[in-house]
Amino acid sequence: MSEPLRKLDALILCGGLGKRLRSVLKDKPKCMARFQGRPFLDMQIHYLSKYGIKRVILCLGYKANVVKSHYKNKRGIIFSQEFVPLGTAGAIKKAQRLIKSNPFLVLNGDSICSLDLVDFLNFHKNKSAWATVCLVRTNRSAERSDFGAVTLDSKKRIVKFLEKKDTRANFTNAGIYLFDKKVLSQIPVRKKYSLELDLFKKPRKDFYGFIAEGPCIDIGTPARFEKAKKVLAEWKF
């Protein structure tokens, strides 16, 4: 358990419509997909708990009641629900009043990485960053075309997010972020707003990328869902 992480709030973005996975999940949100007999979201929460994180804010939207029903009696689980789609940044803004820590951690609800959160937090603090994005290396154009790509300068500052079809960079966004609370003032209220397409659009000198060397798993499509079953069966949660 890490002392610096015990007071860190973690938001999990699990309100997406998950249209590409409907054929597999039918009436469930992506975060409630079952792996090893447990919801994928359980694995994320367990991963956070290993680092001592005690407050987890679930940013809900599509099929929110399914998630609420499962976690309603779980200590340290807090709900923030959007009733119209607000996008990834908009969902964070909706949860603003619930966020106590500075910085705070954000994770996508359909992916998980073998990332050392202590190293991630130390990097963010040492850089006095406005925001830090966890990145993974990739050399496969097929992956870049689906996940998009990020370019860094020599100091690991993010120069720009590239279009998903662009294959000029060797890093992709892993969907894990650390934010200074001043980010919240730059997200509009009650408006659909994206992290990648809106908030991260303009380059900043205090915007950094942290390179994770461990594997990352994403369950966003039926093919990746099946691959995740095999990989997660070997992970210990």
Structure description:
With 237 residues, the chain is an alpha/beta fold. The protein has a single domain, classed as Spore Coat Polysaccharide Biosynthesis Protein SpsA, Chain A (Alpha-Beta Complex), CATH 3.90.550.10. The protein is built from 8 helices and 13 strands. The chain has helices at residues 22-25, 40-49, 64-71, 87-94, 117-126, 141-147, 195-199, 222-232; strands spanning 9-14, 34-35, 38-39, 55-60, 77-81, 104-108, 111-113, 131-137, 149-152, 158-162, 171-179, 207-212, 216-218. It has a 7-stranded mixed beta sheet, sandwiched between helices. The longest helix has 11 residues, at 222-232.
- Rounded mean pLDDT score: 88
CA distance, first residue to last residue: 15 Å
The number of helical elements comes to 8
Structural domains: how many: 1
The H/E string reads: EHEEHEHEHEEHEHEEEHEEH
Shape: globular
In total, the number of strands is 13
CATH architecture: Alpha-Beta Complex
Could you say which structural class the secondary elements and strand pairing correspond to? alpha/beta
Q: Which terms would index this structure?
A:
single chain, alpha/beta, Spore Coat Polysaccharide Biosynthesis Protein SpsA, Chain A, 8 helices, 27% helix
Question: What order do the helices and strands come in, and which of them pair?
Answer:
Blueprint: E1 9-14, H1 22-25, E2 34-35, E3 38-39, H2 40-49, E4 55-60, H3 64-71, E5 77-81, H4 87-94, E6 104-108, E7 111-113, H5 117-126, E8 131-137, H6 141-147, E9 149-152, E10 158-162, E11 171-179, H7 195-199, E12 207-212, E13 216-218, H8 222-232
